[in-house]
Amino acid sequence: MSELNIGLIGSGSISDSHLQAYRANPRAKLLAICDMNEERARNMAGKYDIPHVYTDYRELLANSDVQAVSICTWNNSHAAISIDALEAGKQVLCEKPLCITVDEALQMQQAVERTGNLLQVGYVRRHASNIAVLRKFIDAGELGEIYFAKASLIRRLGNPGGWFADKARSGGGPLIDIGVHVIDLCWYLMGRPKVKSVSGNIYAKLGNRSNIENYAFYQAADYDASFNTVEDMANALIRFENGASLMVDVSFSLHAKQNSALVNIYGDKGGAEIEPALSIVTERHNTILNIDPQITSPGFDFQGGFQNEIDHFVASCLDGVPPISPVEDGVEMIKILNAIYESAAEGREIHF
Ligand SMILES: NC(=O)c1ccc[n+]([C@@H]2O[C@H](COP(=O)([O-])OP(=O)(O)OC[C@H]3O[C@@H](n4cnc5c(N)ncnc54)[C@H](O)[C@@H]3O)[C@@H](O)[C@H]2O)c1
Fold it and tell me: Which residues form the Gfo/Idh/MocA-like oxidoreductase N-terminal domain (predicted)?
């Protein structure tokens, strides 16, 4: 097989990054697109010259020429659409988070095992070019044993509203939407250790701060200032069986002085700061060194990450390259996220 026929389901904001990347991949052919909002699907079809347009994803899956699909819908539909796609014989790239509940996640994993088809989870940050650089240092043992990581994504005012603010469609707020990216990235770089316990807190104190004037922030297409059922912020401590730990805090609304992003990992031979820019810290001849790699994108290059993710997906489908983010990793993250919500609701540590 030299070319892969692609269908995309959910032609909203993030679909543009998928479609751009497929168009730039010489072995991918954009064949079909679907959105329950027909106008949105037709607009994207026009922009990317996609011949088949659907409003029901089942009809797209019934098109036997489609070999692989990108799923870019609301989180509450990832499981059903992925399972139907796998059963229809398609290879699947499913946006993060894998789904909402642990039950759904396990059903998705079973569908992968049953059908023998591929499901790659859309952990785009694993595919960032600065992460490929850092992996070389980690794989060469230059950070030693990574025993602590810290991840923080703080938005002082940044609840996008719409379906993101509707727990029934999103599964939660900043924890499941943006926390998933950085928890996964740390866990991946730490060598995917087995989780031992999780202790979390969630807060809904400020709401979406729709009273704030003169401060612009991203809003979903169906933004409604009066509707919000998700948390403002979450924090958690995750302990691993190997003794390592990960601390995380994320927010959509917080009385913080500024927005901030920080992802740091620490080993017994060296550490690394990943956000906002890659920097490696180590020690040589009794002297501390901060090493700033001279690379084109020291920070997270958004579209570059998507290009790498989609190039990897196409190579996995056509050449059998093992996926960097298989369904099992999606399942583990859904267990962690749900345990954080459970810990917060019950006010106790959850043991795995
Ligand atoms: N990897 C990243 O960095 C990243 C960034 C943004 C969003 N995402 C993920 O991508 C997904 C989509 O987010 P978005 O920002 O594009 O949202 P969006 O609201 O802009 O687009 C979602 C689209 O899906 C359509 N849709 C929903 N359910 C459908 C169904 N059952 N059948 C057909 N169409 C359906 C909606 O009509 C909408 O057009 C979410 O899971 C989100 O978490 C990932």
Answer: 4-123
Nearest residue by C-alpha to atom 34 in ligand 1: 35
Residue nearest to atom 39 of ligand 1 (CA): 12
- Tell me the pLDDT of the chain (352 aa) as tens digits: 589 999 999 999 999 999 999 999 999 999 999 999 999 999 999 999 999 999 999 999 999 999 999 999 999 999 999 999 999 999 999 999 999 999 999 999 999 999 999 999 999 999 999 999 999 999 999 999 999 999 999 999 999 999 999 999 999 999 999 999 999 999 999 999 999 999 999 999 999 999 999 999 999 989 999 999 999 999 999 999 999 999 999 999 999 999 999 999 999 999 999 998 999 999 999 999 999 999 999 999 999 999 999 999 999 999 999 999 999 999 999 999 999 999 999 999 999 9
What letter represents residue 23's amino acid? R
Q: How far is the CA of 169 from the centre of ligand 1 (A)?
A: 10
Query: How big is the CA angle at 215 (ends 214 and 221), to the nearest 5 degrees?
Result: 110
Q: Residue 279: how many CB atoms within 10 A of its CB?
A: 17
Pocket of ligand 1 (CB under 6 A): 9-15, 34-37, 40, 57, 72-75, 77, 95-96, 122, 124, 163, 177, 220
* Cβ 138 vs Cβ 145: under 8 Å: no
Domains, in order of start, for the chain: 4-123 (3.40.50.720), 126-305+333-351 (3.30.360.10)
H helices, E strands: number in the chain: 11, 15
Q: Which residue has the tokens 């959850």?
A: 350
Q: Looking at ligand 1, which residue's alpha carbon is closest to its atom 43?
A: 96
